[in-house]
Task: structure prediction
Amino acid sequence: MKTIRLQADHPADIIRAGEILRQGGLVGIPTETVYGLAADALNGEAVAKIFKAKGRPMDNPLIVHISEISQWKKLVREIPESARKLAETYWPGPLTIILPKSDCIPDEVSAGLETVAVRFPAHPAARAVIEAAGTPLAAPSGNLSGKPSPTTAHTMLEDMDGRIEAVLDGGPCQVGVESTVVTLATQPPRLLRPGGITLEQLRQVLGEVEMDEAVLNPLKAGEHPASPGMKYKHYAPKANVIIVDGPYESYCAYVNGQKVPGVAAMCYNGEEARLEVPAVCYGGEEDYDEQAREVFDALRKLDELGAKTVYARCPEPKGVGLAVYNRLIRAAGFEVLHVD
Ligand code: AMP
Ligand code: MG
Result:
């Protein structure tokens, strides 16, 4: 299949993307979080193609993207007051809300669960494509399953060229990590995946919010996660990533002690000066937003460098940094080294 390149600032290309989606095709679309691989959420056959293109396990449900609140009402059984308040405060934006689903949701979208995850994205091109398609869009991140999520059309094409009908280029993503996922189908509400909307921001609106164990910890054998996506190895480059937790001095000493070909570092901006191995930076030490924007690109760049083993500076799990930590610890398969 030839993957057509479309431009988000060309109105004719938005219309074309909408047509492809209405006809049951797949289009890569920009959102403020990461690039998504979109299909008509109400067409089970179209949605099934997403799983095939990504190599995504069929039991991992998808997020449905809307461009107006009225679409949400049709997708869920009811919208409780708490959900309405969350949506009023943070939509459009990088927040996904899970509620019991209505009958129009195909099984492919919810992967057999009784709930559906919905998001109203802020990116103007994402909203324009949903409007042009005239239907809500199911869209997971546009990477091959297990790989780092794409934050540019170029990186999305690295994984999807030839596998999907089109990619709409809307420039680099502003948030850089996938949306925050919160379920209101349980009491109290529960954070299933951290993202651009922080746990503190959720608590400001909802009061008590629990953080799912799987946000920071590996699953125990046989355990069923609330969010099926959490059981899979994720976001991983080809290189073996190891997180090094400890002060900068000790990090440098440790990494420089491991200096052999194939070893690389993933560090904060400016820290590469004292490292004797190739290094890729992923943002300023205290700039969690920048780290979120950079983390997936940094992982892909390490592959381009041919790194075999990567020692990554441990992100601070605070604010948006919690999302960076959650992604990087999965990329590392939960391997964390402590140095004093
Ligand atoms: P992605 O589409 O790559 O951003 O991944 C979507 C994430 O949301 C995955 O971790 C899914 O397991 C999770 N998810 C989607 N729908 C649901 C749902 N109904 N219940 C729980 N988790 C969900
Ligand atoms: Mg994903």
